[in-house]
């Protein structure tokens, strides 16, 4: 199509659509001048509107950059945590947990074992600054008697607490308070332990699915057995637990937290804010 045959993309408000020429050879030069006089201001106005829109969008996006949800390479959403700065990865091989490759946490139930498990999470309740609390995706409460600080807990420590309780429930002779009921022998006095363990098992399930370790378990030929066997002692990408515990130990509560004191504060969480019923 030649340049003369291209039709005008915009139509003046007072133009007759049915009679407007499709070519550049219109019968009235004055009409074309009138259209040009209308078209230039319209284009200028359009450019101004687009510029203002881009400025507003830039301001909104700039404000959103401080929101607890940020985008990282791969378009993965990462929620804000005050402990993100303590995250450091390392390569680690799991202990199999069978004879010949047992973990120190697999000794028989005893005060020593209880202390080892407790030491994994007994510093798990933290105090964080108001600035950190204002960036959380869910609102948390101020600490009574500790102005400017808010209570928080990293989920890893709750997971460890839950796993420890499941461990205790597996040895009810040593931990009678954690003896649970089954569907066939429900005992009212065991309701608290049963409900707690049910919560913990499902919480750990959700956490495992959430973190979805994609390390690869392999099968290898074992000449001594004359068969291919599964090998679980493989490398994993892990977060350094010591770095996380150092972060938590630096933020231990100064005083015992009193849950019966209602603390008012002015932090507003714009999204993902959920309150317990």
TrEMBL record:
One Pfam family per UniProt: UstYa
Keywords on record: Membrane, Transmembrane, Transmembrane helix
Source species of the chain: Roridomyces roridus
Signal sequence region: none
Protein name: Tat pathway signal sequence
Metabolic or biological pathway: Mycotoxin biosynthesis
GO biological processes: mycotoxin biosynthetic process
Family listed: Belongs to the ustYa family.
Top-level taxon of origin: Eukaryota
Transmembrane residue ranges: 38-61
